[in-house]
Amino acid sequence: GSMRLAVLLCAALAAAVDVNVMLPLDAVTARGITDPQQLQDRLQTMAGAGVHGIMVDVWWGIAEPAPQQYNFTAYVALAQIAQRIGLKMQPIMSFHQCGGNVGDTCDIPLPTWVLEVGNNHPEIFYTDREGHVNREYLSLWADAQALFASQNGTPRTPVQLYSDYITAFVSALQSYMGNTIATIQVGLGPAGELRYPSYPSAYWKFCGVGEFQCYDRLALAALKQAAADAGHPEWGNSGPDNSGSYNDVPSSTGFFSTQMDHRHRYSTNLSSNVSVPGDNYQSDYGHFFLSWYSQSLVAHSVAVLQPARNIVPASVNISAKVPGIHWWYKDPSHAAELTAGLYNTNNMNAYATLAQSFRQSGAGMDFTCLEMLDSEQPSSCECGPFELVQQSKAAAHAAGIAFAGENALARYDGTAYNTIETQTSALGYPIKEFTYLRLGDALLQPDNLATFRSFVATMRAI
Predict the structure, then answer these.
(1) One of 64, 136, 382, 406 is an active-site residue; which one?
(2) Measured between alpha carbons, how far is 391 from 427 in angstroms, rounded to an integer?
(3) Is the previous residue joined to 438 through a cis bond, with omega within 30 degrees of 0?
(4) Beta partners for residue 32, in sequence order
(5) pTM of this prediction?
(6) How far apart are CA 275 and CA 273, in angstroms?
(7) Helices 36-48 & 73-85, crossing angle to 10 degrees?
(8) C-alpha distances in angstroms, 325 versus 25, 176, 278, 415, 461?
(9) Ramachandran region of residue 364, left (φ > 0), alpha (ψ -120 to 50) or beta?
(10) CA 129 to CA 245: how far, in whole Å?
(11) Residue 458 CB partners (closer than 8 Å, separation 6+)
(12) Distant-in-sequence, close-in-space partners of 460: CB < 8 Å, separation ≥ 6
């Protein structure tokens, strides 16, 4: 009897971790589901391999072709297929452009009627110091700007655009809520991640530090105000003037260089209101700027997630994706995280800050790069994906929110799966679920599929 009890207890403690697969980026286009029969066959194969569900982008550029005219037909059809096969469906409210990020094989811009507003109002887009305008995602500094068309003629803000879209989606897929659809992920930035477009493929290559994206008119006005509020108006003229450009390394810039004996170089004497070159991320100015830049991103997540949580039925979870910016993680500056808006240096814990904020918004955290070992990255880039995943996992756990994982790049080898398994059970508690990127021809090759099947079985038994 006691033996059997022990076995039951063990079984109860083992947390089976579900594995989902991400659909191809172009699984749904403006013309509907790409090859529905092939997709159905593939999903049947996935279900047979023990897969729990699918994750799919619900592209804004497809589903709202005119203001408040929504077309979710293809997504309803997809939910029907998933339900018939017995798979869950996790939709992503993808308010970003498809194309222009690592691994993108698609071209779905934001809706035309949204982009057109930018012709007269370029400040709705993130802009770098050189004046490059990024059209992947609307700038958070425009969140409260009523510039966008509606059906009734009253202009809408971006936050309203997102809320209206989520409302329409939930309504169109009402009968799947809480059963086939158990979680909805809410996009908050480029690639659907809560970050600035600090490493756009047009200008950046791995592993440059990236650039700050706070040079549109609204961002600069917000910075000016924040500096005045901090009692240092001289800090409000622009971002750091010594942070280099996209493809620099930290040590070649003043701002990301680490001064072991840094002096606070800002004079409190108001007559000297000139910034002194050489101020770095550790200086009073550096701390002010990085706090403002990162807190703006947190505020954006709250502005979008809180209404989303109210709109989405209580039977359905919501989540948001945090980027896995692992390059320069082992440099004291964490430069690449800083330009992306994650203040993870100077004893700040960016991921704990986000996890606590997500908890207040009622959202879980989705994190990427679970497949990566530090040793697989170029040694000159001070990468720390393995530690980064664990920092984020611990942050979510401490905040009491769900933590779901993904792989960042397509991998079909046993080493990658082993790393995912390690991270899944690391720190003594499992992740909530894992989504494999992604379903396609390569995954279905017999050898790759066999490896994947055994991975799914292992995850179910963790």
Answers:
(1) 406
(2) 10
(3) yes
(4) 29
(5) 0.93
(6) 7
(7) 30
(8) 21, 34, 26, 21, 30
(9) beta
(10) 9
(11) 417, 421
(12) 16, 17, 18, 19, 50
Q: Where are the alpha helices (DSSP H) in 88-195?
A: 112-120, 158-172
User: Of 319, 334, 66, whose CA–CA distance to 184 is shortest?
Assistant: 319
Helix, strand or coil, per DSSP, at residue 367: strand
DSSP 36-70: HHHHHHHHHHHHHTT--EEEEEEEHHHH-SBTTB-
Partners of 462 in the β-ladder? none
Concatenating the DSSP letter of every residue in 121-146 gives -GGGEEE-TT--EEEEEE-GGGTT--
The residues with which 247 forms a beta bridge, in sequence order, are none
Is omega for the bond preceding 10 within 30 degrees of 0, making it cis? Answer: no
Tell me, yes or no, if 193 is annotated catalytic: yes
The pair of structure tokens assigned to 278 is: 């050489």
CA distance 447 to 384: 30
The four Cα atoms 235, 236, 242, 244 give a dihedral, to 10 degrees, of 150
Which residue, among 454, 411, 403, has the nearest Cα to 436 in the 3D structure?
411
Q: Give the separation between CA 134 and CA 293, rounded to whole angstroms.
A: 17
Q: What amino acid is encoded at 44 in this protein?
A: Q
Of 164, 92, 139, 97, the closest CA to residue 366 belongs to 92
Token pair 């001289």 is found at 234
Closest to 426 in 3D by CA, of 389, 460, 400, 455: 389
CB 218 within 8 A of CB 143: no
- Report the alpha-carbon distance of residue 159 to residue 146 in Å, rounded: 9
Are 420 and 370 in contact, with CB atoms under 8 Å apart? yes
CB within 8 Å of 399: residues ≥ 6 apart: 352, 355, 356, 358, 359
Residue among 123, 193, 337, 433 flagged as catalytic: 193
Annotated catalytic residue 130: no
Q: Are 126 and 158 in contact (CB under 8 A)?
A: no
Residues 311 and 170 sit within 8 Å (Cβ to Cβ):
yes
pLDDT tens sequence for the chain (462 residues) = 555 544 444 444 557 999 999 999 999 999 999 999 999 999 999 999 999 999 999 999 999 999 999 999 999 999 999 999 999 999 999 999 998 676 767 899 999 999 999 999 999 999 999 999 999 999 999 999 999 999 999 999 999 999 999 999 999 999 999 999 999 999 999 999 999 999 999 999 999 999 999 999 999 999 999 999 999 999 999 999 999 999 999 999 999 999 764 444 443 333 344 444 459 999 999 999 999 999 999 999 999 999 999 999 999 999 999 999 999 999 999 999 999 999 999 999 999 999 999 999 999 999 999 999 999 999 999 999 999 999 999 999 999 999 999 999 999 999 999 999 999 999 999 999 999 999 999 999 999 999 999 999 999 999
